[in-house]
UniProtKB/TrEMBL annotation:
This is EcsC family protein. InterPro entries: EcsC. The lineage of its organism: Bacteria, Bacillati, Bacillota, Bacilli, Bacillales. It holds the Pfam family EcsC. It comes from the Bacteria.
Amino acid sequence: MSQERVAHDVKKWLDQYKTYEPNDFEMMYDDWITQNFEQIDPGMKEKFFSKLDDWFFHTHAFLQGSSFQNDARERILTVGRAISSDINKIEDMKHELTIDQLTYIAEQHKARGRLYSFTQGGLTGTGGWLLLGIDFPLMMIMNIRSVQLIGLTFGHEMNHPYEMMISLKVFHAATLPKRMQARAWRELMDELDNQEHPFIYEGNDQLTNERWLDQPIKQGLKSLFILMFRKKIFQGLPFISIAIGAYSNYHLTKRVTDFALRFYQYRHLQLERSRSDVGSGT
């Protein structure tokens, strides 16, 4: 059965995080981050991460109200209706389509997201200060949008507060270092298990903390390397800088979209199991 195969794929994918052992450098790095942040005033830390969380919430709301996101939403429904004429709204996707059909549609969003990131990273690699300055927020916006589109494909309406928080927590978990993602996955599972209302989010609404700073630090290093190699020009173009920008952004989006797809696949399998339990009277 396709559900059993997908469940096996999700388990195999998840095992790489459960069995991952951080090396000595990663442990030293984590200790360094912890020690340095312990020296910062707790009030300042709380304010900083609160402002960062607010930016993510506003970004999510902006994307949901944008015309290109609404167009993408309609395209998802159009593709869904081409498979099943019983689809009238986003929620119908998870009821009318099989997990293979949903995965196929989501894979198209993954591919487009990686292409957009690759192109944007390549442009950033030309070394212009404006492009370097907007690279990080633009990458965050593009990857949040990719998570939203995968969630929509699996029939979860992103305008609901609960789904908004879940999608942002999926994005947050996907952008954490690999050594921290098993714990982030368990926290996401707890979120699903503790859901009491289908629309209202009642859990912890904090997103970012010291664990997430690995991503901005990597971004800073990427920008530094781009600046270092932007004068290495071949045939009028800084190919090394372009390659650094394109690969880095592509790799990040691949990680985010892979994580998001596995999460929503797992969630769909849970839904199918609950339907089976209800149907069997257990």
